[in-house]
Specification:
There is one protein chain. By secondary structure, the protein is an alpha/beta fold. It has 2 domains: 1-107 and 262-363, 3-Layer(aba) Sandwich (Isopropylmalate Dehydrogenase); 118-260, Isopropylmalate Dehydrogenase. The protein is built from 12 helices and 14 strands. α7 links the parallel β8 (186-191) and β9. α1 (14-32) packs across α11 (314-329), α6 packs across α7 (197-212) and α11 packs across α12 (347-361). The longest helix is centred in the first third of the chain and has 19 residues, at 14-32. Bound molecules: nicotinamide-adenine-dinucleotide. Nicotinamide-adenine-dinucleotide is lined by residues 13, 17, 73-76, 89, 92, 263-264, 279, 282-288, 294-295, 298, 336.
């Protein structure tokens, strides 16, 4: 088996963490006897510098013709002043839309070695193991009308529109219920149905899909987003699968990241179309770029998600996740998860430690 993977390192720490991710991928490919044909493309700020736009047709075609896409991160202060239509992050939205990636899966699982690394109390975060299913191609990030217009009195008016249709809600609800079937069989649907009509519809449709489409074995609860923000840090163990809109998912998943110690630990998968896209949850981290300080584990764990969801190589995925756990249990930490009595390592060394462990594990 030979898989075509498009690799988009992007900006900031993207290339640094991606190098560690692709080296892990090549290592497990060799160990498990499959081929990976890695084709690199430039996106985001790097693409703006080279081509004047954050995503070229050539790179988009490359993505469409591959088995999966691995993405680093995009953006940075250099491009912050640009018009929204050509900002680096536009490439991310365009890729999601063009590849039909309407569901973003963000597992938030605490490695027990990091229970004391969170800014939250150990007894609160211990045992956290939840999955945020975020709707990715609808809602307020895409809804029309949007924009900033000048008013006759010289002031301005900014508008964004939250829009969801029945089919958009149905398909994301199915993703959440199906994920819950393989987990602890509970779905929390998060909305703001008491204020926003679009999410009143969200609640109605999720309830109907649950009742009518064979998910009786799954427990469904509804929660308002403000309460969910609170419950996530009060008692995260109550959650199994959390399904929510694009913007609420964006915010809640970053909050949930802190349960695991650092955003540098969180992988994600964007699925729904023919080609899945896998990326760390974090951004380009301009404050630590080029200093060998970035935590590569979110990217390495994204490689594991890609192996499991797009390439059907779950044994290789398990092996990567086990190696990450072993390295953390061995007391190695990047700066973002550093703890007392642990050995501080850089991005490259962390990647090497994981590869050493992957090499050592097979009996
Ligand atoms: P960020 O995620 O880049 O950084 C937030 C904080 O977390 C920073 O202190 C950073 O140093 C730290 N951090 C992030 N990843 C880390 C890692 N792997 N290891 C150690 N520490 C890490 O978010 P931001 O600062 O708000 O955004 C920076 C740029 O990234 C912006 O241009 C933003 O638009 C962009 N961004 C891109 C994506 C993406 O490409 N998917 C996601 C979020 C933000």
């Amino acid at each position: 088996m030979n898989y075509k993977i498009t690799v988009l390192p992007g900006d900031g720490i993207g290339p640094e963490v991606m190098k560690q991710g692709t080296e892990v991928l090549q290592q497990v490919a060799q160990l498990y006897g499959f081929g990976v044909d890695l084709q690199e493309g430039i996106v985001g700020g790097a693409s703006i510098d080279a081509h004047g736009q954050p995503l070229t047709d050539r790179v988009l075609d490359l993505c469409k013709q591959s088995n999966a896409v691995l993405l680093g991160a995009m953006g940075g202060p250099k491009w912050d002043g640009l018009d929204y239509s050509i900002r680096p992050e536009r490439a991310l939205l365009a890729l999601r839309q063009e590849l039909g990636l309407f569901a973003n899966l963000r597992p938030v699982k605490l490695f027990s070695a990091l229970a004391a690394a969170s800014t939250l109390k150990q007894e609160v975060v211990e045992g956290t193991d939840l999955l945020v299913v975020r709707e990715l191609t609808g809602g307020i990030y895409f809804g029309q009308p949007k924009g900033v217009t000048k008013l006759p009195d010289g002031t301005e008016r900014g508008v964004n529109t939250e829009v969801y249709t029945t089919p958009e809600i149905e398909r994301i609800a199915h993703v959440a219920f199906q994920a819950a079937v393989k987990r602890r069989k509970k779905v929390t649907s998060v909305d703001k149905a008491n204020v926003l009509e679009a999410t009143e519809l969200w609640r109605k449709v999720v309830t109907r899909v649950h009742a009518d489409e064979g998910y009786a074995a799954i427990q469904l609860e509804h929660m308002l987003v403000d309460n969910c923000a609170m419950q996530l840090i009060r008692n995260p163990r109550q959650f199994d699968v959390v399904v929510t809109t694009n913007m609420f998912g964006d915010i809640l998943s970053d909050e949930a990241a802190m349960l695991t110690g650092s955003i540098g630990m969180l992988p994600s998968a964007s699925v729904g179309g023919k080609v899945g896209m896998y990326e760390p949850v974090h951004g380009s981290a301009p404050d630590i770029t080029g200093q060998d300080k970035a935590n590569p584990l979110a990217t390495i764990l994204s490689v594991a998600m890609m192996l499991r969801h797009s390439l059907e190589q779950s044994a290789a995925a398990d092996r990567i996740e086990k190696a990450v756990e072993d390295v953390l249990n061995g007391g190695y930490r990047t700066a973002d998860i550093q703890q007392k009595d642990c050995r501080l390592v850089g991005c490259k060394e962390m990647g090497q430690l994981v590869r050493d462990r992957i090499g050592a594990v097979k009996g």
